[in-house]
Write a sequence for this structure.
C-alpha cells in the first residue's frame, strides 16, 4: 500500500512538472478585453508569447474563468492593471479548457 501511495505521489508530481513546462507565458499591456456569455474573460497582451500550447491558435490571447472565486479575484486584478495601463506578466496553464482556442491563465502579476 505504501509503495502505491508513493508511486502515485511521484507520478502526480512529475505530471505537474510536465504541465508547467508546457505552459505558455506572455507579458505587456492588456488589450482587447472581451466578456463572454459564459463568464469567461478573454484578453490579449502586447508582447510576444513563449511556449504557446497547440490548442491556443490566437497567440496573444489568454482566458480567465470569471465564474469561480479565484477567477473573480483574477478579473479584479486584470481590470485594475488594464485601467492603469500597467504591464503584466501572465503564466498560462498549458491548456485551453475555458475557451477552446485560448490558453487559460494559471496566474499573473503586475510588473513594476
Amino acid at each position: 500500500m505504501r509503495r502505491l501511495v508513493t508511486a502515485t505521489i511521484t507520478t502526480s508530481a512529475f505530471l505537474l512538472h510536465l504541465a508547467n513546462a508546457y505552459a505558455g507565458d506572455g507579458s505587456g499591456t492588456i488589450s482587447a478585453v472581451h466578456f463572454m456569455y459564459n463568464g469567461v474573460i478573454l484578453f490579449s497582451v502586447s508582447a510576444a508569447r513563449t511556449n504557446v500550447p497547440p490548442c491556443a491558435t490566437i497567440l496573444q490571447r489568454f482566458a480567465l474563468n470569471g465564474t469561480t472565486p479565484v477567477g473573480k479575484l483574477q478579473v479584479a486584478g486584470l481590470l485594475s492593471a488594464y485601467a492603469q495601463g500597467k504591464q503584466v506578466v501572465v503564466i498560462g496553464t498549458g491548456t485551453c479548457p475555458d475557451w477552446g482556442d485560448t490558453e487559460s491563465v494559471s496566474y499573473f502579476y503586475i510588473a513594476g
Notes: Strands lie at 25-35, 40-45, 61-65, 87-92, 103-110.
